[in-house]
Every structure is written in structure tokens, then in C-alpha cells.
Fold this sequence. Notes:
The complex is a heterodimer.
Chain A: H1 2-66, H2 70-81, H3 85-107, H4 116-154, H5 157-163, H6 168-206, H7 211-221, H8 224-251, H9 257-287
Chain B: E1 7-18, E2 21-32, E3 36-40, H1 47-54, E4 62-67, E5 70-71, H2 77-85, E6 87-90, H3 102-113, H4 118-131, H5 147-158, E7 165-169, H6 177-194, E8 197-202, H7 205-211, E9 214-219, E10 222-227, H8 229-233, H9 238-244, H10 261-265
Helix pairs in contact in B: 3-4, 3-5, 4-5
Amino acid sequence: MGPYRFIIRPLIWLRICLHEGYSTVARGLEMLGGLQMLGRLALNFFERLGRGNLFVVRVLTGVPAVFLQPSLIIAQLYSVGVLSLLIIVVAGLNVGMVLGLQMYYTLVDYGAEATLGPVVALSLVRELGPVVAALLFAGRAGSALTAEIGLMKATEQLSGMEMMAVDPIKRIVAPRFIAGVLSMPLLAAMFSAVGILGGYFVGVGMLGIDDGSFWSQMQAKVDWYDDVVNGVIKSVAFGVVITWVAVFEGYDAVPTTEGVSRATTNTVVYASLAVLGLDFVLTALMFGS
Amino acid sequence: MTAYSDNLVEVRDLTFRFGSRIIFDGVDIDIRRGKVSTIMGPSGTGKTTLLRMIGGQLKPNSGEVRVDGRDVPTMSHGELYDMRMRMGMMFQSGALFTGISVFDNVAFPLREHTRLSAAMIQDLVLMKLQAVGLRGARDLMPTELSGGMARRVALARAIALDPTMIMYDEPFTGQDPITVGVIMKLIRMINDTLGLTSIIVSHDVQEVSSISDYIYMLSNGKVVGQGEPEQMWQSDSPWVTQFMKAQPDGPVPFHYPAVDMAEDLFT
Lengths: 289, 267
């Protein structure tokens, strides 16, 4: 009894206290490590952002020369734009049909089902067309651009081109950038148009809304400048951002298998987040007042 | 212009660091006009890096890299591209453009830099392909070529613009003996018939000794030996001897630097 109470128990306490003290210090050190890591992450982020900006300046200086060789742009318009058409059209049709269905059941409670036309058209032209088309474009065309440029880098094709005195930024990146920026608004317009047709099939074809009021209400409520042009401006902005992210991620990829794979993932993630964030800002600016 | 010199490329007191690693530490190299010169050395000594500096793709931390009397690191973008048009490079992987055929690969530099008619380009491309023995492969895609054929196409593309200098990055690595023989013959033949200056980066001692006019050996960021092939074989430098005779241990240690083994195992 005696030795336990007076010797062993205090020793155990001492040990516990020491351990506590030690782990507090360790936690403190860990936190310091965490802070360091945060700092490093921030530095890396801003460094890449800076490189991305310098990169886009170089791309833009290469843009005028590319217009002298339209064949380069046309080939890219095909692979970036035309090949994205299928997914855009199918998705647009589905979004339009679902929108028609959902809106009809909400509007019919207020006896306002005749306004289905403008509701579908405005949602598509202002928001869903540019945004959903941009997200799909990032997944379909953006990832392909990144993987293509990244693999060209990994297989020394870009380096080889430089050694042949051909600037890969002008020959490879700039035509793809132009094609992406030109394709995006066209694809978004296609998405909206097909979506409105989808809404029409559901609203007029299936649910029996009057054909004339569907179109005439739409015509009356949708403003050319406020709605359509603003939607197009949005999609141009998305096109610039997505293509920029895609070509930069490809050009800046670590030239290994994992590096290209990570760059491709980054393109889809960063481009999608950028589109969503930018959409909020643009919407607030355009439709705020 | 600077005075004509016997050396097409002159590297002076070159230093280059990659992060904290020192790649070059005061390297001097002269590449004679019209000769086949080889840079040899163990893997990871920056041989390819040296080629990239001569081509202006990397800038040294200090020192000079002069090509035809002009300092490469201080060139403007335009001057650099002008210089590269007079320079061919054969990459280890070939670096062919995978999306276009063999013919279009060889035609690429001609179409980019000249305003020749399609018929003229066709003739030139077929002549270059004939020189490397692949005229019949003009319609194949790069993915259909063997490694050796890809290098030969890359060689045809490198000489498409009739450069004054050609650089080979590890031309023999990973090839079968027949292909190695073909590439050796091509390097020598192209150098002598076209009056080029050739720089080879390689670690294949036998091949290099038989076709080089002059050899530089790099190790640990320094030139540890130089001379004609016979001089290299008879060299009494431990570095050169270890490399030429393929000895596993020597100035280049067998072991990667580590703490004492007893300490590592018993603590």
C-alpha cells in the first residue's frame, strides 16, 4: 500500500503530466507545420496564377498570326466544337424537357401555365444554356485539350517543335485557344435553342399548352439585348476561362503519366469552379439592377 | 559578325544549377566544325541539358554558350529562332508528331519555314527519306514505326532544312544491334556528305568510339577527360578508365551516398 501511494502513483502522475506537456508541444509544432503548409500552398497557388497570366499573354500575342493560317483554326474548331455537339444537343434537349415538365406543374397551380414559354426560354438563355453548356464543354473539350497538349509535352513533341524554330505556343496553343473561345458561345446557343424545343415538345406536345401563346409570350418577354446578348457574353467569358485553364494545364503539366492525368483532372475541376463563380458575378452585374 | 573560328560551338565556364543540385560547374567545351564530337558521361550528368543550352531552351546560371560566335543565352527570341533553323536535333524518343504521317513529319519544317511549292516539298522530303532508307515508309503513321525507324524519320526531319549542325540525344539507347549499326552509319555519312557539324550525347562507349572524332567526358558537373577515341582508351584518368572499361566502382561510386552501414542497421 505504502510504496504504491507514495512512490508509484506520483510517478504515474508525473508521467501523465510530462506526456500531456509533450503532446501539447507536439500539437503546437504540428500547427506550425500546418501553417507552413498553408503558406506554401498559397505561394504555389499564386505562383501558378502568375505563370498562367504570363502564359495567356504569350498566347494572345500569337493569336493574330494564326488568323493568317485559317486551316489551323478550322481543324481545331472541328475537334473542339463539332465533336462536342452531340453531348451538348442531347443534354440541351433533356434539360429543356425536364424544365418544361417541372415548370408546368408549378405554374398550373396558379393558372399561369401559358407563361411556360418565357419561363423556359429565360432560364435557358440567361443561365442554364451558358452554364450547363460550359460545364459540359469543360468536361468534353477542356479535358481533351489538356490531355493532348500534356502528352505532346511528355513525348517531347513541343520541345522538338521549338528546336525546329516553330513556337508551340503559336502553332499548337493559339489555334486551340481561338477555337475554344469561338465554339463556346455557339455551343451554348445551340444548347438553349434545343432546350427551348424540348420545352416546346413537353409543354405543347404532351401537356397541351396553346401553341400560339407559348411562342408569342416568349417573343414578348424575352428581350434581345438584356437576355440573349447577355447570355452570349456570359458564354464568351466561360469560353475564354475554360480554354485558358485547359491549354495552360496541358502546357504546364508535369511531363509524366501521372502529371498529365492530374492536369486533366485539374482542368475539369478548376474550369467548372471558375465557370460557377464567374456566373454569379456576371449575373449580379447583368441582371442586378 | 565575329571572326571565323574553327569551333562552331564554344562553351566557356558554364555553370548550371537545378534547384540545389549542381549540374555544371565550370565546363569548357569546343565543338569543331565538320567533325563528329561526342559528350559522354554517366546518366544524370546533364548531357541532354547541355544540348538544350546549345539550342537555347535552357539558360545557364553563368558562363557562355557561343554558337557561330554568338552568345546563345543573350539572344532575343527572334535571333534564337533564326539560329534554330540552322540547327537540327534528334531526340531520344524521336519526338515525331503522332497525329500526322511520316511524310508530313519530314515536311513539317519545310512547310513552316519555306514557301516552296507542294511538288518541290514532295521532292525534298522523298530525298531526305531516301537518305535514311525510309522512302517506302512515307505513308505510315509514327505509331506504326519501330523505335529505330522512328529515330531515322526524326533524323530525316532534322536534316530537312539542311542545317549546319545536328545534335543527337542518346541515338543508340535501347536499339537492337542492327539499328545501332544503321544509325552509326547514318550519323557518319550525313556528317561527311552534307559537311555538317555533329554533336552526339551518349553513354555507349563502343559505338561512340568508332564514329567520333573527339570525345568529351563529363562527370559531377566537370569535364573529366577529353581527346580522340584512342587517347580516351589509353587515358590514365580514373574517371575515364572507369567509364570506358565499364567498371562498377571507382570515382563514380557504386553506392548512393548514405550513412555508415553499421550505424544504419544497429541503431
